Amino acid sequence: IYKKGDIVDIKGMGTVQKGMPHKCYHGKTGRVYNVTEHAVGFVVNKQVKGSILVKRIKVHIEHIRHSKSRDSFLKHVEENDQKKKEAKEKGTWVQLKCQPAPPREAHFVRTNGKEPELLGPIPYEFMERLVLKIN
Hints:
Elements: E1 7-10, E2 29-35, E3 39-48, E4 51-60, E5 64-66, H1 71-90, H2 128-134
InterPro entries: Ribosomal_eL21, Ribosomal_eL21_CS, Ribosomal_eL21_sf, Translation_prot_SH3-like_sf
Keywords: Ribonucleoprotein, Ribosomal protein
Protein name: Large ribosomal subunit protein eL21
């Protein structure tokens, strides 16, 4: 199931105690570097005080699963390849970079006969009387 280079998420399963990851690795994502019969070894970043250490840990396969973090990227690449292929057939240029959302179109806001209310900061008022009442 797991191959070298796969991206996996660590999720410790309480029903299987053997080969469990330490609690600091729960929820982390790493890249597989070694696969054995029952376990998988992978590289994970671990923050220790101010520095990030690269750790190699081995965990039973029950405690990991394939990460979905790369799925959206691969889908995006597939769509871009399709667009490139279509553009090449038509002989046109196509935009492949992600574009930010454009600004909204100009429009009028209806007030239905009500006057717009001006909102502003509330003027500062010293609250000495309130402090004395509480104490």
